[in-house]
Write a structure and sequence with these properties.
It is built from no helices and 14 strands. By secondary structure, it is mainly β. The strands form 2 sheets. A 7-stranded antiparallel β-sheet has the order 1-4-13-6-7-8-9, with no helix packed on it. It has a 7-stranded antiparallel β-sheet with strand order 2-3-14-5-10-11-12, with no helix packed on it. Strand 2 and strand 3 form a beta hairpin. This is Alginate lyase 2 domain-containing protein. Pfam families: Alginate_lyase2 (PF08787). InterPro entries: Alginate_lyase_2, ConA-like_dom_sf.
Length: about 170
């Protein structure tokens, strides 16, 4: 895993790992991850050693998003043909969304198991929450992908954003 955080801060100001829980936080006024980047503030875990271009891949983690956190991407399948991501799982107004489509209302203030499956050959992505399929959609192409989780500010972001993660795993079926 590699942690990405605002370039002008120390990692421990936006990331901690205690008792098996990764806590990632960012403020809307934070800088991007590197000087000159046009992207919004983020503190994310980039999963290393599991980049892929074929097969069926799955991200699994237990997630917690406190109330008040909104306008934030908490999980990404990075890599696509004409945009950055094949899938962005977000929290907006207390609801879990796939991009802007609400897939689970009222997700804040509780732990939930998030599974994101990318079937590259079929061009499909699937999202399961607590074992239930809540989203199925087309991917966005691309030849190289990887998973990220944490907090990445989006449109209409709250002033403070946080997510917590534990038991993160990656699976593949080739």
């Amino acid at each position: 895993m590699k942690v990405q955080w605002p370039y002008d801060l120390k990692k421990e100001e936006r990331y901690s790992f205690e008792n098996g829980v990764h806590t990632l936080r960012v403020f809307s006024t934070d800088k991007p991850l590197k000087i000159g980047s046009p992207t919004r503030p983020r503190t994310e875990i980039r999963i290393l050693g599991h980049d892929y271009s074929s097969g069926v891949w799955q991200f699994e983690g237990q997630a917690y998003v406190p109330s008040g956190t909104s306008g934030v991407c908490i999980t990404q399948v990075f890599g696509a043909s004409n945009q950055s991501t094949t899938l962005a799982v977000r929290v907006h107004g207390g609801n879990l969304t796939a991009y802007s489509t609400v897939i689970v209302p009222g997700i804040s203030d509780r732990w939930f198991r998030l599974n994101v499956i990318h079937d590259v050959g079929a061009g499909k992505v699937f999202v399961h929450v607590d074992g239930a399929l809540v989203y199925e959609g087309a991917d966005h192409g691309g030849s190289s992908h990887y998973f990220k989780c944490g907090v990445y500010a989006q449109k209409d972001m709250s002033s403070y954003m946080e997510s917590r993660w534990k038991e993160i795993q990656i699976f593949n079926k080739n």
